[in-house]
Design goal:
With 398 residues, the protein is an alpha+beta fold. It folds into 3 domains: 157 residues, no CATH class; 70 residues; 140 residues, no CATH class. The protein is 55% helix and 11% strand. The chain has 17 helices and 8 strands. It has a 6-stranded antiparallel β-sheet, covered by helices on one side. Helix 5 packs across helix 6 and helix 11 packs antiparallel against helix 14. The radius of gyration is 30 Å and the shape is elongated.
Length: 398
């Protein structure tokens, strides 16, 4: 609901929880209003200026919305030149756009185009707000500028709405912003499907297994929406994936139980893949081969005997974590790592021996793809507990 202010101000205010931004803009456009629409959400503040219903300017407290930041992210200016321009801007009091023209870095037309882009991006970002307060100050004008910008609010709204519809479709497949993005190998490669635009390529170069999704959004040469769209496409194509960094939202370091649970799950994945391929190719005889391998291994490793299922023919993976934690703490990782690494290596070697090199190569590819996230997310813990070599040895077994 809109709250009308006193008649002398002729303004109104409200909350985005109860009034949509679309309704506010439609009211201002249809009424051919002139003034400033101020919106706040916590520490964030943005202002949109209108003249007889047309958008003529916008301001933001967010650094990512600043003209210099937008120019830098889009590769339109070098960092050194921007720093010089910002210094002159502060010392002279002139608008940054005017300083950039006087420095010979941009023409009048280029600055006008950049300012228009800045205004549009500020307004597009507002449509992503789910909460906040607004107040319209009728008659309030922006600071004087040499550049005339007049945007039809309905055109801007249509583009913002299109973006929001697209955002709602892809947000479920985007990772949380604190997740680390890393490169992956797609199951199949289609040259036509994987062709990238220059903008997408600029985003892809930031995926380095170190940056979080949030950091990629900050460092990207594209705006937030375009970057998110590119990330969504890369994930859909299988070019990248994401993992939760150690300790994220957990309030502390990854403990022994979590490391052990993931480590044993890794070995269960190996068994499941091997079991499936043996039964597909050899049926009951394949199962017998795996049972013989387990019987041999458990005579050499007492831990495996302890984890035996009721028939003693394979590991009871459902109870092994709880059982493993009953071992002396200084022996848990060492005994479990040695036992399961030996067992998994024999399983994998049996694939090559009985089913051939081609089948062995295929399942090793599946194994690496299925466990890339595990290795990346737990790398430091694997190193700390001295089991990184065991994992990598199995993943790249020849």
């Amino acid at each position: 609901m809109l709250d009308t202010k006193d008649k002398s101000d002729k303004g109104f205010k409200g909350n985005l929880d109860t009034v949509s931004l679309l309704d506010v803009f439609q009211l201002l456009f249809s009424g051919k209003k002139s003034g400033m629409l101020e919106l706040t959400d916590g520490d964030s503040s943005k202002k949109v200026y209108l003249k007889t219903g047309m958008i003529v300017g916008a301001e933001s407290s967010e650094n990512e919305d600043m003209l210099g930041t937008l120019l830098l992210k889009r590769g339109k200016i070098k960092k050194m030149d921007l720093n010089r321009a910002l210094s002159l801007h502060k010392s002279s009091g002139k608008m940054l756009g005017q300083v950039l023209i006087e420095m010979g870095l941009f023409s009048d037309a280029e600055i006008c185009s950049c300012l228009k882009m800045q205004v549009e991006e500020i307004i597009y970002s507002l449509f992503g707000w789910s909460a906040g307060e607004f107040i319209f100050h009728e008659g309030k004008s922006p600071n004087k500028s040499n550049y005339e910008i007049a945007l039809n609010p309905m055109n801007v709204i249509m583009e913002a709405t299109r973006r929001m519809d697209e955002w709602n479709e892809m947000k479920e497949n985007l990772p949380p912003e604190n997740y680390i993005l890393y490169g992956a190998v797609p199951e199949r490669i289609d040259d036509e499907e994987i062709r990238l635009s220059r903008e997408e390529f600029g985003v892809l170069t930031l995926i380095d297994s170190k940056r979080s999704f949030k950091q990629v959004l900050v460092d990207s040469p594209s705006d937030r929406f375009s970057t998110s769209k590119a990330i969504h496409r890369f994930i859909s194509l299988g070019l990248i994936d994401a993992y939760k960094p150690e300790g994220a939202n957990e309030g502390g370091d990854v403990g022994l139980e979590a490391v052990l649970r993931d480590f044993l799950k890794f070995h269960r994945d190996i068994y499941d893949i091997v079991f499936l391929v043996f039964t597909d190719y050899m049926g009951e005889e394949g199962i017998n081969i795996l049972e013989r391998i387990f019987k041999i291994c458990k005579t050499d490793h007492q831990v495996l005997d302890r984890f035996s299922g009721s028939g003693g023919k394979n590991v009871n993976y459902d109870k092994m974590v709880a059982e493993a934690l009953t071992l002396p703490e200084n022996a848990i990782i060492h005994k479990v790592a040695n036992s399961f690494s030996a067992l998994s290596q024999r399983y994998l070697s049996a694939v090559r021996e009985y089913l051939g090199a081609n089948v062995f190569s295929q399942i090793m590819g599946k194994l690496r793809k299925a466990n890339t996230r595990y290795v990346e997310s737990r790398r430091q813990s694997l190193i700390n507990y001295g089991i990184e070599d065991d994992v990598f040895h199995l993943l790249y077994l020849k």
